[in-house]
Design brief:
By secondary structure, the chain is mainly beta. The protein is built from four helices and ten strands. The protein has a ten-stranded antiparallel β-sheet with strand order 4-3-2-1-10-9-8-7-6-5.
Length: 199
Amino acid sequence: MSATEVPLTITTKNLTAIFRQNKDLSSSVDEVLKAQGISWTVRTALKYTPIGLRINLYTDDSDVERLDIDQLLAAGLKSVEPRILDFEFRERVSVVFGPVVARSKRVTIDEATQINSFLGQGWDDSCAKEGLIYAYARGDPSQPNGLEWESHQTFGFADVQVDEKQTERKYVVRLYFTAPSLDQGVEKRLVYDFVQEGL
């Protein structure tokens, strides 16, 4: 097993770990970031700097699942994404994306496919058994500096072809994104290498 392959002990129900984006295996998201109002300087830095993810899944005192994701970005930026898996809409202001309205929940692969077929593709057996985490977000143009865009994401694990002969289990985010500045919706796959279990 490669040092960057995600152990089978890490699943969508046991998801406290650190990952690093694999730029070679991930889609470019430059057009997405541009539609979200991210500057050319930051987008250029992001092209060449791997993004680190520190993910903590836990249940709070009210017995509600929470998924905290700290994204360590280029140019000294850090994006904190607290997700509560109860599918309630919540408003927040992201230091990177500005005003955002978002909600999250668990879904089956079939449910993800019904939202958008791309979101349900390619997941491993652990996701078939335990499901995916689905996150919906949109920009809030009614707020200062808010832009209009809409994002659907699924989080889980997949066997990814890393070279001609080998596949490895990776943490994967699938994204379907729309915005008025884009001619059509775009589909992106982000692939992350395993760094360590726990925080």
